[in-house]
Amino acid sequence: MQGIGDSKDTGSTPEARTASPGAPERSGGERSEPQRSGGAPGTARAEAGLAAAPPPDPEVSEKPVRRQFTAKYKLRILEEADACRDEPGGIGRLLRREGLHSSHLSNWRQLRKKGSLRGLAPKKRGRKGKRNDPTTRKVAKLEKENRRLKKKLEQAELIIDVQKKVAALLGIPLKTPESDENG
């Protein structure tokens, strides 16, 4: 027997009371995603005839690879940019398509203006190598020998100072080079 306050109503909100028996209960303040039509995600693209593109590779290489542009490529891009000047947004489209920055164009234009085709070729980055000159090798060898001899001289002077102190402690008179010449 059920009393007046005893109801078999399990839901506390009107939404829960009207929900179908197999659906999960939700409280009145919760939001839920709208029901999706059956099927696996991405099947709509496949049904429309569009191939699902694989996701981009999230790996980042340890050492970044710097792009190098040939002189031919630079000249071709400059010609295309000059042709695109009249149409609005043309240069921007060109830069996006090629993955370039506007600074590339300005640098390449300056080099083209100078007429230095060598400047349009890729340059080797970093310090310039030392000249392999026989005189520089000889100077380096002599400097190395000089450092070695200076170190040897410092050691000899240190030994002589220690010998002088020991002689002074023991009371042994030392002959100086000046006294040998005079005596």
How would you characterize the overall build of this protein?
There is one protein chain. By secondary structure, the protein is mainly alpha-helical. Among the domains are: 71-120, no CATH class; 137-174. Helices cover 51% and strands 0% of the residues. It has helices at 14-18, 43-47, 71-84, 90-98, 102-114, 117-120, 134-170, 177-182. Helix 3 (71-84) packs across helix 5 (102-114). It is elongated and about 100 Å long. Mean pLDDT is 74; it is low at 11-17.
What characteristic shape results from the CA principal axes? elongated
Largest sheet: none
What structural class results from the helix and strand content? Answer: mainly alpha
Order of helices and strands: HHHHHHHH
Average pLDDT: 74
| Number of β-strand runs | 0
Please give the alpha-carbon distance between the first and last residues: 141 Å
- Residue share in β-strands: under 5%
- Tally of helical runs: 8
Model regions low in confidence, pLDDT < 50 over at least 5 residues = 11-17
Helix content: 40-55%
| Rg over CA atoms | 44 Å
Summarize the structure.
It is built from 8 helices and no strands. It has 183 residues and is an all-alpha fold. The model is unreliable at 11-17 (pLDDT under 50).
